[in-house]
Amino acid sequence: MAGIRQIAKDGIADSKEKIEGLKSELQGLKETEENLEERLVEQNKTGLNLFEKLTKFKNEMNGFQTDIKTSLAQNNKNTSEVLSDIKVQVRLLSTSLMGLDQRVKQLDQTVPTRLEENYKMVSSQMSNISANILEKTNESLHSLKSEIAKTKYDQLKLSAAILSLEWFRNNISSGLIDSKAPMVVAFTAGVTESKSYWSSGNLIFSTIIYNEGGAYDASTGVFTSPTDGIFVFYVTITAYSSNTISVDIVKNRSSSVRALAYGGSSYQTGTNMAVFSLGRGDKVWVKQHSGQGFYTASTPITSFTGFMIS
Predict the structure, then answer these.
(1) Which regions of the chain are under pLDDT 70?
(2) Where in this chain does the entry annotate a coiled-coil region (predicted)?
(3) Distance in angstroms (rounded) separating the CA atoms of residues 310 and 176
(4) What is the dihedral of CA 7, 10, 16, 22, to 10 degrees?
(5) What is the pLDDT at residue 181?
(6) To bridge 188 with a disulfide, which of 69, 108, 148, 305 should be the other Cys (CB 3.0-4.6 Å)?
(7) Predicted pLDDT at 306
(8) Distance CA 266, CA 245 (A)
(9) Phi–psi pair at 276, nearest 5 degrees
(10) Is 251 exposed, middle or buried (0-12, 13-18, 19+ CB in 10 A)?
(11) Nearest CA to 238 among 195, 185, 279, 281?
(12) What DSSP string describes 214-226?
């Protein structure tokens, strides 16, 4: 029995310890429950605040969405109006471009023709102006050269007259001639028609200006001395345009002197003079040596002169 009692006692003691343990655990659970209740209350408070915040945020989001929808609607309206205006402008621009394209095509067709017409007109005007300038320049040059040739001719006549007078005075002083009947042989002849291609033979000065004694033949261009004496001959040759021409004064088929008009520029003039002792019947003329073409005018520029000095 004692053993049983001891076992029962030990069992009771062990049960008490377990009960005490359970009490302790129960107390811990109560404390835990209280803590949980406190935390739950706090969480409920926090949850309420969070709910309020979420509600406020939701309301704000709804207002924002409403504003966005309003803005989008207004933007869509404005965009539609702008697009309509742009479509109208595009139509107008397309119409203008079509008109411009047609105008460009017309210009493409007419511009070359107009350019060609204007070019022809300007070319014609420039040609006329150039021709007029060249003609006036040539006329001025011809006039100047004619004056120079005339001056030279006048000087030549003056020199011949002085020589003749000197010869006449000397012969009269020496009693070699009869002062009452001096013999005069002198001529000047020229050509009045230019020949651009003349390049051979005798140069025939067919226009007689003076022919005292009749020794010069205008049909052949040959001077035939009617008497023995000393004679002076002078030739002037003007080249045609920019040609080069040279001629010789010939005595009885023998070239004696040469006149050269070199074509470095337009209408150059060449001159030369020769003094011959001629017997009765000797002949003098002018012939081509080289080159071609001579120029003259109605008042001779190209000329041939001769006269006896003794």
Answers:
(1) 1, 4-5, 8, 11, 43-44, 46-51, 54, 64, 75, 79, 82, 90, 104, 107-108, 111-112, 115, 118-119, 122-182
(2) 12-46
(3) 11
(4) -90
(5) 52
(6) 305
(7) 98
(8) 12
(9) -120, 145
(10) buried
(11) 195
(12) S-EETTTTEEE-S
Count Cβ atoms below 10 Å from residue 132 Cβ, excluding itself. 10
SS3 302: coil
pLDDT at 78: 73
DSSP-derived 3-state class of residue 71:
helix
What is the structure's pLDDT at 106? 75
Q: Which residues contact 197 (CB under 8 A, 6 or more apart)?
A: 292, 293
User: Which one-letter amino acid corresponds to residue 5?
Assistant: R
- Mind listing the pLDDT tens digit for each residue in 215-232? 999 999 999 999 999 999
CA-to-CA distance for 62 and 271, rounded, in angstroms?
Answer: 121
In this prediction, residue 48 carries a pLDDT of 60
pLDDT at res. 159: 62
How many angstroms separate the Cα of 270 from the Cα of each of 15, 142, 290, 300? 170, 14, 13, 14
pLDDT at position 291? 97
Closest C-alpha to 260, from 232, 298, 288, 231: 288
Place of tokens 């205006």: 85
Question: What is the C-alpha to C-alpha distance for residues 170 and 147, in angstroms, rounded to an integer?
Answer: 34
CA-nearest of 238, 233, 237, 271 to 252 is 233
Phi, psi of 180 (to 5 degrees): -85, -20
Taking alpha carbons only, the member of 250, 307, 305 closest to residue 282 is: 250
Show the tokens assigned to 149.
């040739």
User: How far apart, in whole angstroms, are the C-alpha atoms of residue 177 and residue 162?
Assistant: 18
- The answer to whether residues 209 and 296 touch, using CB atoms and an 8 Å cutoff, is no
**Cβ neighbours, 10 Å, residue 301:** 25
User: Residue 157 contacts by C-beta under 8 Å, 6 or more apart in sequence?
Assistant: 188, 305
Give me 32's structure tokens: 């835990």
Which tens digit of pLDDT belongs to each residue from 75-104? 677 767 767 777 777 688 778 778 777 776
